Amino acid sequence: MKKRFDFDDITLIPEYSYVESRSNCNPSVKFGGYRFKSPVIPANMESIIDEDLAIKLAENGYFYILHRFGVDNITFVRKMKSLNLVSSISIGVNESSYELIKELKDLDLIPEFITIDIAHGHSIKMKRMVEFAREKLPNTFIIGGNVCTPEAVIDLGEWGCDAIKVGIGGGSACTTYHSTGFGNRGWQASMIKSCSKVAKKPLIADGSIKQNCDIVKSIVLGATMVMVGGMLAGYEESPGKLTQKDGVWHKTFWGSASSEQTGKQNRIEGKKLYIPFKKESVFVKLKDIEESLQSAISYAGGNPATLECLMFVDYALRK
After folding, report:
1. Cβ-contact 221, 9 below 8 angstroms
2. Residue 230, helix vs strand vs coil
3. Does domain 30-232 have CATH number 3.20.20.70?
4. DSSP conformation class of 33
5. Closest to 131 (Cα-Cα) out of 111, 108, 167, 161
6. Annotated catalytic, 174?
7. pLDDT, tens digit, 9 for 90 and up, residues 239-266
8. Which of the residues in the chain have pLDDT under 50?
9. How many angstroms separate the Cα of 46 from the Cα of each of 43, 111, 118, 242?
């Protein structure tokens, strides 16, 4: 078996720095023809992002992916067009998603980004949807996922994805591993590394992000963007329900395959968590992450001091 490791198993090695002030380091990233303020993407989960937060993120220069649960995508894309903001939506692989793509094309409401979001992306249903979306919306940037093997990354790229979301079973509200035994839980870091070796398209690392440094390490290992869920739960803008638990205010956070999300009691691969209410804006946390990225860039020694310099950082395994 190949050596597998996770974020806590590696330490990044500093390089000589040209940086005179960390504030001069630029954590922005170019993705899909746009430049965004940072590589962080709030997870496209109903308890993490809603339409109001999507608008605020777009207005403030952040990339986002709206979730696909009960959303009127036609109305949302039309609104984003009217505001001259980037539209980025999620779809599945069922018949309703095919109809949505047809309607978007017929109405000339072409979203800049579409994420085809299913639990097991290395599948015939993903292949068919990617090929259909590519044919109908040739100018839309298509993100496919989730997958966790180099073979899957190669296939999704060949099928027509412009970026690939990697990571299965690692999220704190995900129980795929516990239910099935499948996924890459416990070795997200080495999975990103192995997938990046074959990737010809940008990778979005998704899952297992617990600390700011995990975002940095994901980029060092080959990710272009990093999706964050639990870390961005419990803030003022978080859509989770505000509730008291043991006398303390919390917001709920649930997995996309949980009974809370689907309303079903079978095929459950997610759970509901209670996150302490932080009583501050999620943009405070996003700013904190940006500052961590700026510091990381200064340790990486890049000249110019941009996020891209992290791709050349060496690391040491701790065990």
Report:
1. no
2. helix
3. yes
4. T
5. 161
6. yes
7. 988 888 888 898 888 765 544 555 555 5
8. 1, 258-259, 268
9. 9, 20, 15, 14
